[in-house]
Amino acid sequence: MNKIIILAGVFCILSVSCKNNTPTEKSTDITYQGNTVIISENSAINSKIKSQTVELKNFSPEFNTTGSVKAITGSMAEIAPLFDGRVTQSFVRLGQKVSAGTPLFELHSAEFSETVKGYFQSLQTKKMKESSLQRQKDLVNNGVGSVRDMEEAETDYEVALKDYESAVSNLKTLNIDPDKINMGQALKIVSPIDGEVVQTDMVIGQYVKSDAGPLAIVAELSKVWVVAQVKEKNIGSILKDDKVEIRTDANPEQVINGYVFHISELLDEETRSVQVLVVCDNKERRLKPGMFTSVHFIGSPKESILIPSTALLQNEDETYVFVQEEKGKYSKRRIKAVTVNQNESLITEGLNAGDIFVVEGGIYLYTN
Fold this sequence. Notes:
- The protein is 24% helix and 38% strand.
- By secondary structure, it is of the alpha+beta class.
- The two termini are 47 Å apart.
- The relative contact order is 0.19.
């Protein structure tokens, strides 16, 4: 019984002794001063720490996102009737190439007839008022006319001229040359752009309303936009004219090359992303408006800081590395990093060329 008590006492003494020796040994090897760690010269930890000097390297940032195909602004025109009327003739077929000004279809419309009638009335009135004004000027110049009558004639002419100019403007809005219009003629709807008829819903004899949908769509799709959604964190990685690779579900192995045309100045607060317009050659018509795509951005090469990902340490709210201030002295430095591949990370903030950082063994310097 006494032997058991003595052994238990010895065990307790040894246990206390071991516990007391642990912090003493640690404090001899490692000293903490805030975010700075000092390791004694004879500590075994030194052999476990490997350091490396930060060097600038040419790097092209790359990342993937999604996008959708869209016709370039001004290269697609939806042609709808401007008046109520009846389609009496079609001049084009689906897939036909057309030029700006090419007639697409003909519309007989009472409203259009009234517009033409109004133009000829304004033309006739302008001529009459112009003639009356000239007569009053001649009378005044010959001393037999009234200045007051001449001024009234000038006012009447100016009003008639404004009405005529307004009527001419209305016809030109319809792509009609006023000098070639005739009373009673049908309205010929023409293409406003060069392109191809990609949709037509015209039926001869069909009565259409001015608020109906387009009867034809003309588009020039040899070049298109891919509208990509770029996250806020990647905005700084791209510039205008940077290369872009596009892939579609229809041909996932085929790469379509493009370049950055425009980076929006507006950030979508819900998605934390901006729209980036990518111009792509589309002579083979592999990209169709509305199609979804994958988008691979390749940024312009620039001097950057790349370090092995093994150097990065993480706690709840920050990423950091240990920087060697001098032999055996390391400071914890907060950084911002973006993973670029399985082994490397791009440092966007926190390190400078010439800094010496811990690439392996940083875990032994962990300070919480």
